[in-house]
């Protein structure tokens, strides 16, 4: 139940395809979802991850460290990437992810996660896809980027389904 709420809360999907076949993933296609991270998200993520760094819970400590307020866990923000991929490709297997944390994300920030297909390779009726990944705060400020690899059972893109 908790994981379902984390994955489905405040999520806005967007698909942008470079190809004319809108239901088939091609190099250059971008899948995107946005969400607002809440205090409850941070508390629940901390319970599951056992990451109780006070920077996520103590506003004064966070401000004294040079931040404007409490931080959202970086790995919680990065969880947008597998969410985007698996919601469009049920049965996908996440193989790897590199992450570069650029700027903090604060509770209440709207963050858009994007995955862009940069290479596709067919292997035994499955597809190894490399994605450029990034998260933008308020649709303009880069807070996180990297690359991901996933094995997809198909290149047919499914509509995002609610996890509720």
UniProtKB/TrEMBL annotation:
Q: Name one GO molecular function term.
A: (3R)-hydroxyacyl-[acyl-carrier-protein] dehydratase activity
The family database entries (SUPFAM superfamilies) matched by this protein are listed as:
Thioesterase/thiol ester dehydrase-isomerase
**CDD domains listed in its UniProt record:** R_hydratase (cd03449)
GO CC list: mitochondrion
GO BP annotation list: fatty acid biosynthetic process
- Domain MaoC-like, residue spans: 33-128
Tell me the domain of life: Eukaryota
Which Pfam families does this entry report, sorted A to Z?
A: MaoC_dehydratas
Q: Name the InterPro entries for this protein.
A: HotDog_dom_sf, MaoC-like_dom, UPF0336/Enoyl-CoA_hydratase
Protein name, UniProt field? MaoC-like domain-containing protein
């Amino acid at each position: 139940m908790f994981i379902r709420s984390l994955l489905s809360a405040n999520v806005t999907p967007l698909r942008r395809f470079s190809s004319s076949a809108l239901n088939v993933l091609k190099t250059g296609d971008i899948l995107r979802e946005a969400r607002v991270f809440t205090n409850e998200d941070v508390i629940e993520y901390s319970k599951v991850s056992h990451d109780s760094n006070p920077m996520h819970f103590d506003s004064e400590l966070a401000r004294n460290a040079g931040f404007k307020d409490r931080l959202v866990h970086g790995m919680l923000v990065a969880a947008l990437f597998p969410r985007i991929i698996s919601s469009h490709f049920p049965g996908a297997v996440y193989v790897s992810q590199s992450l570069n944390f650029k700027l903090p994300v604060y509770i209440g920030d709207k963050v858009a996660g994007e995955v862009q297909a940069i290479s596709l390779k067919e292997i035994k009726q499955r597809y190894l896809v490399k994605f450029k990944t990034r998260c933008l705060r308020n649709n303009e400020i880069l807070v996180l980027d990297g690359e991901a690899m996933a094995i997809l059972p198909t290149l047919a893109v499914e509509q995002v389904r609610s996890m509720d």
